[in-house]
Amino acid sequence: MSEKRVGVYICHCGVNIAQTVAIEELKMFASTLPHVKVSENYMYMCSEPGQELIRKDIREKRLNRIVVAACSPRMHEPTFRNTLQSAGLNPYCLEIANIREQCSWVHHDQKQATAKAKGLLAAAVSKAALLEPLEEKEVPVTPTAMVIGGGIAGIQAAIDIADSGFKTYLVEKEPSIGGHMMQLDKTFPTLDCSACILTPKMADIKNHPNIELLAYSEVVDVKGFVGNFQVTVKKKPRYIDETICNACGTCAKYCSIAIVDPFNEGLSKLKALHIPFPQAIPAAYVISPKECRFLREGTCRQCEQVCNELHAINLDMKEELIELEVGSIVVATGFDLFDANRKPELGYGRYENVITGMEFERIVSASGPNLGDLRINGKKPKEVVFIQCVGSRDKTVGNEYCSRVCCMYTAKHAHLVHEKLPDANITIFYIDVRAFGKGFEEFYDRVKGEGVYYRRGNVSEVYKKADKLICRAEDTLLGKPIEVEADLVVLATGMQPSTSAPEVAKLMKLSTSPDRFFLEAHPKLRPVDTGSDGVFLAGCCQGPKDIPDTVAQASASAVKAVIPLARGMVKTETMVASVHDAACRGCGFCVEACPYDAIALAEKAVNGDTKTVAVVNEVLCKSCGACSAVCLSGAIQQAGFTDNQILSVLQSIGKVY
Amino acid sequence: MKFEPTIVAFLCNWCTYAGADLAGTSRFQYPANVRIVRVMCSSRINPAFIVNAFLEGADGVLVSGCHPGECHYINGNFMARRRFVLLKRFLEHLGIHPDRFKMSWVSASEAGKWTEVVKDITDAVKILGPNKIKREQVWMQQSL
């Protein structure tokens, strides 16, 4: 074995590390450690001159193992691996001592932090001496993508990926794509008609040669890894063949069961056999199985008899499992609106003239149950009160975050009221007005100019007095309690993670942030990536967003999803397990421990004898190391985390220096 | 001289190690006694590593991974949990107080919980005093 020549490079990270860790002392200490030939420090190791320092020493001082004491390996391990590679050294001959995130940033005391940094550095050096060069392998990629969720985020991502020339599956759990944006009347601040700008995109989904829409379907299983995911999609029975149905609507006339219309937020009724909304894609009817008389009671089948030319209705349809192979996945599962019933003091559900923002959207929408006529119980409201931050910025309901859209949609609502009922008095109760986006502040100004009365205060109670509602609040600018009369109270309910989010997180191995939305890989630099390679986030599943931000993020995640597809190859895990055949006793403990069935027992010729040994399938191995932990003879070892490497770390990390 | 224990913490790359990084980014402060060893999954941690850490002088050992059901590798943390429940009982037979060993579940976003876990085990081990196996001799020599 050739001599181990270790180079140690300590980063100041400006003052991020240097202000708490004594760099010179650490540098001197490193030079006393075994195998260390070079011990250097630099202001920013990750900068080009910093990296050149390492490259130069590799070439000139024949270093063959590199230790960088800097930020977390989760941050710059790839950077420094590239540095090694560009200097002709195997990129896996690198070990990083995390002295920033896990040392200088979390300790104030310089003495203690320096002592700890020494321990971390000594451990890294001892492990580096035992590192072995590893070979990177590549496997071909399935050139298709899957987008989960057919709201505006999923629609945009699917179109962008498909436009790049890759086959895209769009999976939507509801019978039609469109999502929440389809329910909106106008969009702020431009007052575009929401449906008018969305429906062309929905039609693109239907007509695009590269897009296969799987509506009324749910992802039930995801296996594999970036480039080679195996996905199982459950297609729920629609009871109407969407490829045959021409949406003539004759069948619905014969359906006698009325159900609540979720698209109109329960403000109107639908038939059990219905089309979700007129512009639905796929443009086909659907039967709600919980309400359909035949599916519940076993008699009826009227609709089937009516559809006697096309025979599109099939009440015996069963759910189908579809297996898909995809290279990358975009998660765009969206949000749910906060349930206003959780704030009973605001009277929602008790008084019918207390409504949510989304209900208001449906009422004022020309395609809504009132055909755009703003009336409550047949009467035009004279006093309209909007209450902001319902279910947002509210620790009592567990939602500490700002939902980012409510300030502006309330301003839009106020504008719409003013437009439809110019004589109405409009009051908006707010905590802070956040008009941060392009054109938002200008729109807010315009609405204020229309005579809308903004009052700073959180409404504590809404109660009924005669035929009026009374909103009680403290006006925090006046510093006194006030009561405002209302004929209509609109609650600006915020966003929450979709109820399906925990299930999706489990399937795709996604983390969630404390607000329960999906966690991105890095809040600043990798905002659409996730901890799972090949899985990307778009839209409100990652956090509340307005439409422009959602569309921008969807396009970003589409590009990210296209990268592996366009490259055609992905690197497989490098730090895989391998078996020392002579030491293996063929017990099979590792076979049981492997969560991926990547290990099997096989007969093999070892030193002239035939014996049973464990064999690792390197493509399936995900580098968890579970096998190494259960091996009694130390025969199976995870590269980069071998028993010897970890034991050497333990020898030096706990010492008092 | 005040007793400052050394705590060796084995953290899985995907949850607790990332959570500890987040604690850094958020500038949360916690005792400098903890020294982190990164592994890809808590299932990689051989119980012998824990015993070895004590033999090498650690006063406390912490294992922390993803919450049950949220393992990056399907079920690795369940394997770890089973293993370390047994180890905790076994430590007593080795003459190591079981409270010196702790298991926790900290996700990538739970920076606050991570600082609490570190504070808890550091306080607990401070009460127990130096690890008798090796640390006591080292400590005596240093105090002289």
Keywords:
heterodimer, A: 657 residues, alpha/beta, five-stranded parallel β-sheet, 19 helices, 29% helix, B: 144 residues, Rossmann fold, four-stranded parallel β-sheet, 16% strand, globular
Mean pLDDT of chain B: 91
Helix run count of chain B: 5
Number of strands of chain B: 4
DSSP strand count of chain A: 34
Largest sheet of chain B: 4 strands, parallel
Q: Provide the low-confidence segments of chain B as ranges.
A: none
Proportion in helices of chain A: 25-40%
User: Which parts of chain A are unreliable, with pLDDT below 50 for 5 consecutive residues or more?
Assistant: none
Write a compact overview of the structure shown.
The complex is a heterodimer of chains A (657) and B (144). Chain A is an alpha/beta fold and 657 residues long.
Describe the structure.
The complex is a heterodimer of chains A (657) and B (144). The two termini of chain A are 30 Å apart. In chain A, strand 24 (459-465) and strand 25 (468-475) form a beta hairpin. Chain A is globular, with a radius of gyration of 31 Å. Chain A has a 5-stranded parallel β-sheet. In chain A, strands 20-27-21-22-23 form a 5-stranded parallel β-sheet. In chain A, strands 2-1-3-4 form a 4-stranded parallel β-sheet, with helices on both faces. Chain A is built from 19 helices and 34 strands. Chain A is an alpha/beta fold. Chain B has 144 residues and is α/β, with parallel strands linked by helices. The longest helix of chain B is centred in the middle third of the chain and has 18 residues, at 76-93. In chain B, helix 1 (16-25) crosses helix 4. Chain B is globular. Chain B contains 5 helices and 4 strands; from the N terminus they run βαβαβαβαα. In chain B, strand 1 (7-12), helix 1 and strand 2 (34-39) form a beta-alpha-beta unit. The model of chain B has no long low-confidence stretch (mean pLDDT 91). Chain B has one domain: Rossmann fold, CATH 3.40.50. A 4-stranded parallel β-sheet of chain B has the order 2-1-3-4, sandwiched between helices. Chains A and B meet through helix 3, helix 4, helix 5, helix 18 and helix 19 of A and helix 1, strand 2, helix 2 and helix 3 of B.
